[in-house]
Each structure stands twice: as structure tokens, then as C-alpha cells.
Amino acid sequence: MTYRRSLTALALALAGLAAHPSAAGATAEAGPSASVTANPSPSSGVPSVQWKSCPDYSDEVIQSVRVTQEQVPAFRTLMKRLECGTVGVPLDHRDPGGRKIDIAVTRLAATDKAHRLGATAVLPGGPGNSGYLDPILRAALRNEEMAKLNERYDIIGFDPRGVGYSTKVACPTLPGGPQEPGALTKEAARKIYDGQVSANQKCGRSDAAFLGQLTTGNVAKDLDLVRTALGERKLNLLGFSWGTYLGMVYRSLFPEHTGRAFLDSVAPPWTRFDEHVKDSAEAAERDFGRMATWLSRRDETYGLGATARQVREQVAKLVRDYDKSPKTYTDLPRPIDGSAVADLAKRNSTEWVRAGKALAELRTATGTTAPPTVKEMLSGGQMMGTPVPGAPEMLNMTMNLAVACNEDSSRAGFDTAWRTYQELVKRHPATGRSWGLGVMCAGWPLPVQQATLKRSSGSLVLAGHLYEFMSVYDWTLQTRRAIGGTVYTVADDVHVSTTRVPECAAEVVRYFETGRIGRGCEGSAIPS
């Protein structure tokens, strides 16, 4: 198990280098549209939104969803504008008259109604992330530039089926848990594999009727019924991470209902977990080369080596040393072994300063308590803590597992997984140990269901990050070859950073307003 386990199967990624092929100022072919009749009556057979009061959150809850204390008043002001409701959809879209489930929906209406252009749906990551508060968190409150999107667009958020305020189920047990620290042996790997198979089979069979309907295709069909219920002829799409794949699937199923689409940190046009890990691991080690160069130029501060090669060798040695002799600290939840060191080497450029300090501390660490930066970075943070009472669910691991495994055709057996893991660690000496054994979907008992992607002439921008490993840049190029679109290159290594950087966010908003997009932006700055 990695020290800081990845929470998503479909958000694993890499970062290939490629020249940007699109022309500057590419123009979209399909623009936004005005709404049609809203809120049809239930008796008409057309879905409707059942509007209700939005949740009332405490300040503690608001800050738990990554809102700063200074932003709390603005968040509360936006919550007064937010509309909340549910839309009933079929559990099985092949049986529209059968069992119904609820999809939780939110809307932040455009402030400039006289010049309104339509509605933009925010497509959350994961699979399994909540999108209920995304109109606020990813648009209106993100920064001044992104807030402008809400001037002429309604911003639509939703919890996908299986998540948050939408209908969901919980598996009796989920795979994973503490594992023996130190180098992974074949015997320990076999226990991990057997435990994963057992937990996956119990999970998948616990409510197969519901879990078998957790697919990207069904989420896309739910979203189209939400569109109908909102009275929108078309939806514009702003997708992040797994939400980019959801955007691809929605656009393939409903091209006539898709307006402009901007997809940030693009998923590949396929859903094999083993290929995700392979590509992402290669990209993570490659990006560590950039980190090693940066650290070597600051050898007086970090003491990890005066050349990139020396830094690489030093970090690889730390991985081996901590695997041979894991260290236990009284103020950390788990011992530190080679996977923890590899995790630090896998951080993106916004964390190089802290990661470099932590790596330097691990070289000379003594005592029973963790060095300060090591503790800060490896204590587990919010993921290890008790959820704040009343907080909305931001990630549902049952949905994450079900969607990933329902769509994964690899489902490796033990021998293949063990051989692949050994090769991965050998090929990537600095970061490879952080990935763990790639058996997420081993033994999943439900059939494989994969969406069919189709090319269309509609407006599509694919934002790929040159050095990222969570969503590999080459996946952006593969996706363009599969379904078309314009590539927008972000010259950083930070997952879904485009809307966080004001200069990039301004281009995103301009795209939704005009249909035009440039070649790319710089993205998150490398620390000086």
C-alpha cells in the first residue's frame, strides 16, 4: 500500500511531453443556448426538479470543505443564492419504468440575466467525488476570474449517483487497510491480493442491482435528465479529472445536447486500470527528474546532491534504506518505509519546497518523534481525521470502486500483478514504491461495462498539463485523436490547476463566452 494512497482509479495519470498542435484562437463550432420551458409538471412524464431548502452548514463544516476562514462570509452569501433540489431518474436506464433513484442538483443562477448564455454543468472528479457545492467551490468562490463565469451562465452542480446527497449504498467492507511496513515481499503481496479479492467480492455482491448500475454512462444519462428537468436545450460542460471522461461520454451519447465543453486534466479514452498505473508511474518518475534538478540547484539548502543524478541516487538510497529499516514515530499513524519516501518524491512543484525539506530531514532523522516537515506532510491530514459532523460527503469510496471496476477490463491475477509491481519498482527507483500492488479490481464479480466514445463536431477544449502524472499529457493527445477537439496546453505538473490560476481561468471564462481559446497557459508557477 502506498503511504498516501491514491483515492481514485480513474484519476491516475502521467505527463508526456509533446508539442502543442492546435492553432491559437481556435473557434468553437457549437455555442451555448438559452433554456426552454423550465420545471415541467411530473404528470407530463418529463423529469422535474423537486426544489427544497439548501443545507445549513456551520462555520466548522464550511471550512472542512477547504474554504478559508476569510472566505466563510462570502460562502454564506453564495449559499443564499444557491438553489438545491433533486431529480428522479431510473436506476436502470434500460428500464425507465422501474426503480427510481434521486440525483441531488444545485444551481447558481446567472447574475446578468439580460445577457445570459445558458447553463454550465460542473463535472466532478473521482469517480466518487461530490459536485453538490461545485458552483460555489469551483466557480464563484475560486477566484475573481472564475467568478465571472456566473455572470452569464447558470452554474449547475450535482452529486453523481452513489455519492453525497444522491441515492447511494455502502459496501459492508472496502479493500485496503494497514499493511506491513518495509519492502513488499511476495508473501505479503499474496495476502494483499487475497484480501482485495475477498473484499471486492463481498462488496460487489452486497447490492449488485445498485452497484452494477454505477457506470460513467449511467451518470451521463442521469445528467441529461437533469438537463431536461432544468429546461435547458443544451448543457455546457466544465469537467475535472474523471469528470473529463464523464464529459467525453456525455458528449458521445448526447452531441445534440452538448454546448461548449472545457475538460481539465484529461482522462484517457479507455478505462484499463493496469494501463493507468503504468503510464502514471512513468510520468511520476519523469517528473521527479524535474524536481531533482530543482533540488540540485539548491544543494546548500537541502543537501541532497549538487547534480540531478546525485539527488536521484540519494532519494533512491533513502527508499531502499527505509524499506530495509522502517522507522516508527510516536506522533505518526504509521511507520515510515520506502513507500513514504517515494511518495515525497512524487509531489508536484507546488510542494517541492516542503518535500525537499522532508527528504532532507529523513536523511538524518533521530529520536522518537517525527521531524517537523515529515510530520506535516505524512501525518495524513484531513483524510486521517474524523469527519466534521454535518459535513457533506466529498468522496464516496464505494462509488469510486464500483465505477472503476465495472469499467476495468484488466482485473489482473496475482502472478501478473506481482510481476508488474516488481518491474515498476525496478524501473522507477525514486517513485515506484509509492504505487503499491495494482490489484484494485481483482475479483470484482460484476461484468465489465465500457462506454463507446464518438467523435462529433461540437466545441471541445482538452486541457492537458505537460508534466502531470495524475492525468498524463499524452492521454490528452490520445483523446483528441479519438473524439476530436482542441488541445490547450498547461505548462505545469499540477492536477486540475487551470481554473485555480487567474490567468488561465480568464481564458476558460472567455472560452465559454466566445467559443475561442488560445494555445495554452503557464499554469502553476515553479517555486523560486
Structural account:
By secondary structure, the chain is of the alpha/beta class. The chain has two domains: 26-169 and 216-271 and 453-521, Alpha/Beta hydrolase fold, catalytic domain (Rossmann fold, 3-Layer(aba) Sandwich); 173-206 and 273-378 and 409-443, no CATH class. The protein has helices at 59-64, 72-81, 134-140, 144-147, 149-152, 186-206, 208-211, 216-230, 242-253, 273-296, 299-302, 308-324, 338-345, 352-364, 372-378, 381-384, 397-406, 414-427, 473-483, 502-514, and strands spanning 26-27, 49-52, 83-90, 100-108, 118-123, 153-158, 235-240, 258-264, 460-465, 486-490, 516-517, 520-521. The strands form two sheets. The protein has a ten-stranded mixed sheet, with helices on both faces. A two-stranded antiparallel sheet has the order 1-11. α19 links the parallel β9 (460-465) and β10. The chain starts with 25 loop residues before the first strand and ends in a 7-residue tail after the last strand. Residues 1-43 have low confidence and may be disordered.
Strand order across the biggest sheet? 2-3-4-6-5-7-8-9-10-12
How much β-strand is present in the residues? 5-15%
Uncertain regions: pLDDT < 50 for 5+ in a row? 1-43
Quote the distance from N terminus to C terminus: 33 Å
Structural class of the secondary elements? Answer: alpha/beta
Largest sheet: 10 strands, mixed
State the fourth-level CATH superfamily of the largest domain: Alpha/Beta hydrolase fold, catalytic domain
Number of helices, where a helix is a run of at least 4 consecutive DSSP H or I residues: 20
Approximate helicity band: 25-40%
Oligomer: single chain
- Please identify, by name, the CATH architecture of the largest domain: 3-Layer(aba) Sandwich
Supply Rg: 23 Å
Number of domains: 2
Per CATH, the class of the largest domain reads: Alpha Beta
Mean pLDDT: 91
**Judging from the principal axes of the Cα atoms, what is the shape?**
globular
Number of strands: 12
